[in-house]
Specification:
6-stranded antiparallel β-sheet, about 180 residues, 5 helices, alpha+beta, single chain, globular
């Protein structure tokens, strides 16, 4: 049962990429993955927050710099949306779905290892400075004082771009001890 956290996350991301490649016009691959402390940036980010109904186990956050949002959309749809009133909302919905796929795959990896079932809540999209969101996310995370933070940076390579994503996993310390 003991497995490295990095391996669980990598397996989850690889499964997410299979799903993303089914719906994308381009092809995604994992260019790099690193687990370790991240320094959140002050730039504007689009963040996807995903928690489980069993909030004492996991919560997660995926962030992407807003300057890459259009590239993610283009990689999936093959084109851009013409600028207009709803274009920003359409891009947010796509990032929300990409975040949902990636975060669900990672959380499912932990659940499978522990032989438990999980029920995720609907993902929430948050706009703002990454540093502000990460610093204040604990107001969303129930029982945060019993959780450890695992930070992951991944770079996904599409057909025409490389897009960095930051992932913050809030994992029950009991669960971390059980997995490691």
């Amino acid at each position: 049962m003991k497995k490295k956290i990095e391996d669980i996350i990598k397996d989850g991301i690889e499964k997410a990429l299979v799903r993303l490649n089914r719906i994308s016009t381009g092809k995604w691959k994992l260019e790099s993955l690193s687990v370790g402390p991240l320094k959140p940036e002050d730039d504007e980010y689009l963040c996807v927050y995903l928690a489980l109904k069993e909030k004492d186990l996991f919560s997660s956050l995926l962030t992407v710099n807003k300057k890459f949002v259009y590239d993610v959309f283009k990689e999936i749809k093959g084109s851009f949306v013409l600028p207009g009133y709803y274009s920003e909302t359409i891009y947010e919905l796509f990032i929300n779905e990409v975040g949902n796929i990636i975060l669900n795959s990672i959380l499912s990896g932990f659940a499978n290892l522990l032989k438990i079932s999980i029920v995720p809540e609907y993902p929430k999209t948050i706009n703002g400075s990454e540093s502000f969101v990460v610093d204040n996310i604990f107001s969303f995370v129930d029982g945060y004082h019993n959780k450890g933070l695992i930070s992951v940076r991944i770079v996904l390579k599409g057909s025409s771009c490389e897009i960095p994503f930051n992932i913050y996993l809030f994992v029950s310390e009991n669960l971390i001890r059980e997995v490691l």
